[in-house]
Amino acid sequence: MVNKEPDDDKKFKLSGARKYFNIGITAFLVIVCSLIFFFFLFRLGGIADFCLKLLGILQPVLFGLFFAYLLNPLMKRIEGGIKRLLMGKKLGKFHPVKYSRGMSIFAALLIVGLLIYFLTAMLIPGLVTSIATLAAELPEKLDYGIQKLWAYLGSDEQIAAYVNNAIVQITTYTDTWLRNDLLGQLQNWINIVASSVKDVGVTTMNLLIGLIVSVYVLGSKERFIGQFKKAAYTVFNERYANAAIDLVRQANSIFGGYIIGKLISSACIGVVCFLGMTIFGMHYAVLISTIVAITNVIPFFGPYIGGIPSALLLVLTDPMEGVYFVIFLIVLQQLEGNILEPKIVGSSLGLSAFWVIFAILLGGGLFGIIGLILGVPVLSLIFYVLGIFTDKMLGKKDLPKDSKEYVRIDKINDGNITYIPPDRPKKRTKKRFRMRKNIKK
After folding, report:
1. pLDDT of 252-294, one tens digit each?
2. SS3 labels along 4-35
3. Residues with Cβ < 8 Å from 301, sequence gap 6 or more?
4. Per-residue pLDDT tens over the stretch 47-98
């Protein structure tokens, strides 16, 4: 019989104690996480209020990050041109290349500022004129349209009765709303307007501060990128840090290309729409072109959101002009979808039409206008992450990664793939051939 050495007993006791210690630490962490989870669950309203307050405080910083993100591509192009132009040149001890970042930031801000100024100077007078003309002519056009409708429906008394009943109900509802709801809520609206004036002042100040913040962010963007990577490699191991950096890089590629490209594409569509409507002599060219450009930022549904009310507005002026505008808008959208958007925005982010509609509906339903605009790139980024995960898992199982391969797969057993046999055309027998020949006779 072999006797245990004292050192072996000591090691056995230490390993047992370490085992129970690890179990105790795990149980303690589970209890702490559960308590934190229930605390957040029952304090969800307070936490949401705190987050909204924090976002309000950090609004200038968020504006600054957004401005810097939009200005960064323009600044990079200008900075590259300045470096190529001034490379190797110096004025005494002054090296202009060292100050290329500051010059490129100033040039980018100047270009964007002048662009906004000229667009505002051209758009606002035209918009004011169009809106004033529309407000003056709309009642007369509505009366003319109703008279035309009555003249058309005069021969059918039943349809005329339905239309008359609908008009009476709409008029009664509007009168009730004006007498009861509108007067009752007038005081609330006055308070909202007063607070909105205050909020406009605060938002304007935050925008100015955000513009200053964007200058500092653009000037030190390499330092911020280095700090982010340093923190990632400090907190995570190399594998997860590389994955996080790759995810941020892909998100920047998707969102940057999509948002900036969509803004440029929408601006081009607005300009082309204005030129086309002006050449064809259509009414409200400035107003309708602005509506089309703004709503075109929303993918898929944007052209319909802006085009349908614009066409109805032109129909009140001249029915044929409304028809011509619809045809012109269809041609314009084909131009954007087949030429402008592929060149400016790039590919469709790898999403089919079904997933684009899904992302727009889900994003718009949950987050409103922001969800309508950002739903498509967010879903594209989610698909990118899921693609990495599925490719990794399928690689471990030694299975094909292309989705097209699975269309022909019938089943997989122990890694062995069985494919669906291809459909073969049935051979025409002599009996069937004779029957068809007799039928023809």
Report:
1. 888 887 888 888 888 888 888 888 888 988 888 888 888 888 8
2. CCHHHHHHHHHHHHHHHHHHHHHHHHHHHHHH
3. 360, 372
4. 778 788 888 888 889 999 989 988 998 898 888 888 888 776 666 565 666 7
Residues 428, 40: Cα–Cα separation, whole Å:
72
As a whole number of angstroms, the distance between CA 40 and CA 101 comes to: 45
125 Rama sector, left if φ>0, alpha if ψ -120 to 50, beta otherwise: alpha
Burial of 357 (0-12, 13-18, 19+ CB in 10 A): middle
**CA distances (Å), origin 68, targets 213, 214, 233, 256, 261:** 8, 5, 25, 11, 16
For the record, the structure tokens of 29 come out as 């962490």
Residue 382 token pair: 């989610």
Q: Give Cα 226 to chain centroid, integer Å.
A: 28
Between CA 89 and CA 424 the distance in angstroms is: 74
- Rounded CA-CA distance 365/354 in Å is 16
Backbone angles phi, psi at 394, to 5 degrees: -70, -35
Assess contact for 385 and 375: CB atoms under 8 A.
Answer: no
CA angle 285, 287, 289 (to 5 degrees): 65
Buried b (16+ CB within 10 A) or exposed e, 81-102: ebeeebeeeeeeeeeebeebbe
The rounded distance, in Å, linking the Cα atoms of 222 and 208 is 24
Collect contacts of 94-97 with beta carbons under 8 A, ≥24 apart: none
79: its two tokens: 């900075």
Tell how far CA 282 is from the center of its chain. 32
Average pLDDT of 329-357?
72
Give the closest residue to 258 by CA, choosing from 354, 339, 342, 334: 342
- In the beta sheet, which residues pair with residue 416? 413
